[in-house]
Amino acid sequence: MRKVAIVHDYLNQYGGAEKVLEVFHEIWPKAPIFTLFYSPDKLPSYFQNWDIRVSPIVNLPLANKFYRFYLPLMPSAIERFNFSNYDLIISSCSAYAKGIIVPQHAKHFCYCHTPTRYLWSDTFFYIESLTGIEKMARKALVPILNYLRIWDQVASQRPDYFIANSKFVAQRIEKYYHRQSKVIYPPVDLENFYLSDKTEDYYLVISRFRPYKKIDLAIQAFNELKLPLKIIGSGNDKYLRKIAGPTIEFLGNVSDKQKAEYLSKAKALIHPQEEDFGITILEAMACGRPVIAYKAGGALETVINGVTGEFFTPQTSQALAEVVSRFNENKYDQHTIRRQAEKFSKERFKKEVLEFINNKLS
User: Fold this and answer.
1) Are residues 151 and 139 part of one domain?
2) What confidence score (pLDDT) does residue 139 get?
3) What range defines the domain where residue 334 resides?
4) What is the CATH number of the domain that holds 325?
5) Is the pTM here over 0.85, yes or no?
């Protein structure tokens, strides 16, 4: 029987990557999870029942709050984990987890959510988006990112096999890492989402408050249209609240049950960002609700134009406002939309992952 270990970059937020990690834990419930640092208060309580093993970075001052200050230490920290007692290592990676060093007898499968955004595709945007005390470190950050980019390129050659979460990400893996990958789409937990008898008069955004998520674009569009927009999520919202008009409502973080209820009754989910995949799109579809998405990234692989949603382009508030202004929710059949989400079920994900791994190991 194989001894399995799971590696995840860091557990300090709850998003799509962590939902994939949950399913990996379901497949291998006895496998320990190695991670750079862990903030229990930012994750569902059941994570505390898992065997989570953290790096020494957690012992450094303010490591969870200002983790960017410790970027230069992360490569050596991830390399310190000892996997000599394991035969199979699964890394869930958008940054450092792929860089683990495994013994010769072990096989390493990297499930790649994206090549590290701030090292490759979004470097300049990342630097410009720094605020507060982190903004003061911009000049020092440039040579650090150069060093990390070199390390990341070396680390990308360490996994035996890459699995990409979308065709979009597979193309980026090939571009930046010169590696081929198998595409296995992330899962959506269909049991948590349901169809509603009727919708209410609002649109919905669900997102962490990060600059690349483009929540400001959605706010500007709905300010112009004077239509109700509810926003679920958390982060630095000072600027977003400042520009929000009277029809914008911030709901903060909500429970999974509340999220499903908001999704099931929304006219549509607004997805203004370019995502590597975009699990929230499928959660909306699992509730039978259409999606209005920016025409880029993983959305192109899940949204069927005119059937499960609509696209807008370019990535401007004007383009989004134009699509919303002519949007007609009554043209969409919620059962058809739900069937699209069912193609991305958790059971399908588990089956494809195990088949790929077993095939390579045999």
Assistant:
1) yes
2) 65
3) 190-342
4) 3.40.50.2000
5) yes
